[in-house]
Design goal:
Blueprint lengths: L1 E5 L13 H24 L4 E4 L11 H16 L3 E5 L11 H4 L6 E4 L5 E7 L2 E8 L24 E6 L1 E2 L13 E2 L1 H5 L5 E5 L5 E4 L4 E3 L15 E7 L4 E7 L3 E8 L8 H18 L7 E11 L3 H4 L2 H15 L3 E10 L13 H12 L7 H4 L4 H7 L1 H14 L1 H14 L1
Parallel strand pairs: 1-2, 2-3, 3-4, 6-7, 7-10, 8-9, 10-12, 15-16, 16-17
Antiparallel strand pairs: 1-13, 5-6, 11-12, 13-14
Helix pairs in contact: 1-2, 5-7, 8-12
Bound molecules: manganese (II) ion.
Length: about 425
């Protein structure tokens, strides 16, 4: 038995915080990813497409997307590929939900309520496997639905399909515990594969039997970086092959830059970002046709602190970067930048900090007082160390350590 496992498509996510152009691209990307999934299902001649919930994002479903879904499913069904779709918390199957209201072509089996159902899967009239699944009837399904699944019969591959929060999985804390289930129970259930949905992060929870979240089909915000797509699964007698296939047209990337002291102009900063971007793409180039959205998190002391706090300057920088790096969009977060060190502002203070800054300045001045004498070395020690070289050496040392010394003194001074 061969199938494609998808989850968490969230079609028609509103993306309200994005510009019109980017919002259009992101919405379109959700449909393109599904179109690619359909192409893959056809070219790989799978027996069934499994959708593990959250096919829609919520109440807003455009007529465009509805028609697109219908056509996509009809393509599969006319090629003899079944579709089994179990609803999740974003697209519950109860009265009034899109899943129940919209028109579906023949060959699509909808699992709209929590009562598990067994769907036989055929290839050219022959039984090749069974899918047992259940859907969320409401947006707040709090029961452990997996525990109600029947024991599979098992003479053909038996697949379980469910939108669920498996307790204790990475990323759990960020998601509501809808239809919670227990890994030990899934493992002991007798199914040959658990096709799960709900957690956007792709992960294998168990190898035997394989229990997988495919992750979402298209990332929707910077936190959902990395390649996104579906799992192509072949269940055979002795072993199950699970392959991830990238399908999302848009990729997200987050760059954190917190060493900004040497960027003295926005052009310098743009160059620094370009270097970091190039490095990141060397290790993870993405597909040749991928479109990218960059989130740039800037932090720490920066001579550009003031410019970066100005929305107009930020916009200019993001536009410059988008053109330069050929990106769909660039978001800049600069709330965590701070003004650069300015020792001159503190030198005249009549306190320990001011005194320390004045001493440091004096000692590093070429014809100022002798550092070795000020530091309290005796005549004998100075003679032994070679007096002529000692002062220049100490000045150099103090100067090279100056940024660190200033940092320590000023941060101390600011917080006291
Ligand atoms: Mn969900």
């Amino acid at each position: 038995m061969r199938f494609l496992h998808l989850a968490d498509l969230h079609l028609d996510t509103p993306f309200t915080t994005r510009s019109d152009a980017v919002r259009r691209e992101l919405k379109e990307a959700g449909r393109i990813a599904l179109e690619r999934a359909v192409e893959l299902a056809l070219s790989e001649r799978v027996d069934v497409l499994l959708i593990a919930g959250d096919l829609f994002d919520g109440e807003q479903l455009s007529f465009h997307t509805e028609r697109f879904l219908h056509q996509s499913m009809a393509r599969l069904s006319s090629a003899g590929v079944q579709v089994v779709y179990a609803t999740g918390n974003h697209d519950p199957g109860g009265a009034g939900g899109h899943a129940r209201r919209m028109e579906w072509p023949e060959g699509v089996t909808l699992l709209l309520d929590p009562k598990p159902r067994v769907v036989p899967i055929h290839r050219e009239g022959e039984l090749v496997g069974r899918v047992t699944g259940a859907g969320h009837g409401s947006a707040r399904e709090e029961r452990d639905l997996a525990s109600t699944f029947p024991r599979p019969q098992g003479e053909v591959p038996e697949i379980a399909l469910l939108h669920t929060q498996v307790l204790g999985t990475p990323g759990e804390a960020h998601h509501d515990r809808y239809a919670p289930s227990h890994l030990a129970q899934l493992k002991a259930s007798g199914y040959d594969y658990w096709a799960l949905g709900h957690i956007p992060l792709r992960q294998e929870l168990a190898e035997t039997p394989p229990i997988h979240y495919p992750g979402n089909l298209q990332g929707r915000h910077p936190g959902e970086s990395g390649p996104k797509g579906g799992l192509l699964v072949q269940v055979a007698q002795n072993r199950t092959q699970v392959d991830f296939v990238e399908l999302a047209p848009i990729r997200w990337e987050v760059l954190v830059m917190d060493e900004l002291d040497h960027a003295h102009s926005l052009a310098d900063l743009a160059r620094l970002v370009e270097n970091r971007w190039t490095q990141a793409r060397e290790s993870d180039p993405g597909t040749p046709e991928a479109k990218w959205i960059l989130r740039l998190n800037l932090a720490g002391r920066s001579p550009l602190h003031r410019e970066l706090s100005d929305p107009e300057e930020q916009l200019q920088l993001s536009q410059e970067l988008a053109i330069r790096l050929d990106l769909l969009d660039v978001e800049i977060r600069a709330e965590a930048t701070r003004p650069p060190l300015a020792p001159a502002d503190h030198r005249d203070r009549m306190d320990v900090l001011g005194e320390a800054l004045r001493i440091l300045e004096e000692l590093t001045t070429e014809d100022g007082p002798s550092p070795s004498r000020t530091l309290g070395l005796s005549e004998g020690e100075m003679a032994a160390l070679g007096r002529a070289k000692l002062d220049p050496y100490l000045r150099e040392l103090l100067q090279s350590e100056e940024p660190e010394l200033l940092q320590a003194l000023l941060v101390e001074g600011e917080t006291s």
